[in-house]
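New to this. Please check this fold:
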Amino acid sequence: MKNGKEKSMFVREYLWRDLMTVCGLFVILLTIVIGAFLVYKGSSTFLVYRHSFLEFLGSADWAPEDNMAGGGSIGALIFIAGSLCTCGLALLIATPFSLGSAIFITEISPKFGEKFYRPVVFAGIPSVVYGWVGLTVLVPAIKTLFDRQVGHSILAAGLVLAVMIFPTITSVAADALHSVPKECRMAAYGLGSTRWQTIYRIVVPAAAPGIISGVILGLARAFGEALAVAMVIGQTTALPTSIFSTTKTLTTEIAAQMGNAMEGGEMKSALWTMALLLFAISLFFIFLIHHVTAVKPEKEEKTSTSVKISTTAVPVKQFAAKGEN
């Protein structure tokens, strides 16, 4: 009976281990297959229709032919510039608020933050809701406030994206701040630091890799958004000249044209190339996060040593104070 139970536990242990291994390998294989498929589809722009990579990235002339003959131009600079402008603006707006919220949740009022603030802020709101609110509230407000002919603009898209990536950055940053050892805070308090000094001199620098990872994840989230941005950006095929310009992004152009383009035509091949570019950008963000969060053994040893020195400095200071008295 005992041998039967041990055998059953042994089988279950290896069964779940093998199942998890298969799931992990499947995700890796799926990513490779998606990447290979995008390379196969996106390379037609260069191999079949003989366009250059420099033309694709550096030209603002976007007029591909929707047929198999080709002969058009596939400059995607307008969409690249639109994506960079909207995502960069969203990042500039969202990052300070996200970092402040993360500090509030973990350092200022952790009980209120965990019970009330997080559930409200991190509620799953669909993209179309953000876009609809931006279209009906934000766009008319920008038009009236800045006395513009239209309210659709990079500013509107950046504000909508900022609200959308705010929960992502805040959540990752809060987890990074929470993971800083309590001993670091106690050592800072013992050496006479105030709470604010402890936050910006000890906690935030220690959690910097995690905070940066949250910012990068928010940027990746912004780059991949299509629906909400398309509703407020104006959808004009022109290079942006200011935050009030109407333009297009990579995702909005793919979403608008992919369903209508001829299969195998120059237009659809160019759209596949844009999708490949987005995939490459996503991979770059992933590798960047791994690079930022990777801690070298020497650095980790120095960090742990500094923490030990800081914690031992507290009773030494207290002992010196007693000796003086």
